């Protein structure tokens, strides 16, 4: 995956998704979508049945990921999605499942 130019504006958001998002391939589908879009970061299941992700990329890439995360893969039913802006100098190299 091509590195983001250090001069390109990058947004980083922490995303929390609730609903029927575990046991439906949500994380794997999220990784695939991120690779398709070119976003970086990670996604993981939480013990409470929710999914958490850190999405990093250009504003357009982040917007595309948020749009997709609100729907998820077939079988998922997203009830709520919240975001929190993260301020970090770290640039992720890829998007992965934790």
TrEMBL record:
<dbReference type="Pfam" id="PF00708">
    <property type="entry name" value="Acylphosphatase"/>
</dbReference>
<dbReference type="InterPro" id="IPR001792">
    <property type="entry name" value="Acylphosphatase-like_dom"/>
</dbReference>
<protein>
    <recommendedName>
        <fullName>acylphosphatase</fullName>
        <ecNumber>3.6.1.7</ecNumber>
    </recommendedName>
</protein>
<dbReference type="GO" id="GO:0003998">
    <property type="term" value="F:acylphosphatase activity"/>
</dbReference>
<feature type="domain" description="Acylphosphatase-like">
    <location>
        <begin position="12"/>
        <end position="98"/>
    </location>
</feature>
<feature type="active site">
    <location>
        <position position="45"/>
    </location>
</feature>
<comment type="similarity">
    <text>Belongs to the acylphosphatase family.</text>
</comment>
<dbReference type="InterPro" id="IPR020456">
    <property type="entry name" value="Acylphosphatase"/>
</dbReference>
<dbReference type="InterPro" id="IPR036046">
    <property type="entry name" value="Acylphosphatase-like_dom_sf"/>
</dbReference>
<dbReference type="InterPro" id="IPR017968">
    <property type="entry name" value="Acylphosphatase_CS"/>
</dbReference>
<feature type="active site">
    <location>
        <position position="27"/>
    </location>
</feature>
<keyword id="KW-0378">Hydrolase</keyword>
């Amino acid at each position: 995956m091509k590195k983001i130019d250090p001069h390109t504006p990058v947004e980083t958001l922490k995303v929390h998704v609730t609903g029927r998002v575990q046991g439906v391939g949500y994380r794997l589908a999220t990784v695939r979508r991120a690779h398709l879009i070119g976003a970086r970061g990670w996604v993981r299941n939480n013990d409470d049945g929710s999914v958490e992700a850190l999405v990093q990329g250009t504003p357009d890439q982040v917007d595309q990921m948020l749009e997709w995360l609100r729907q998820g893969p077939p079988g998922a039913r997203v009830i709520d999605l919240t975001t929190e802006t993260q301020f970090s100098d770290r640039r992720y190299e890829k998007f992965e499942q934790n």
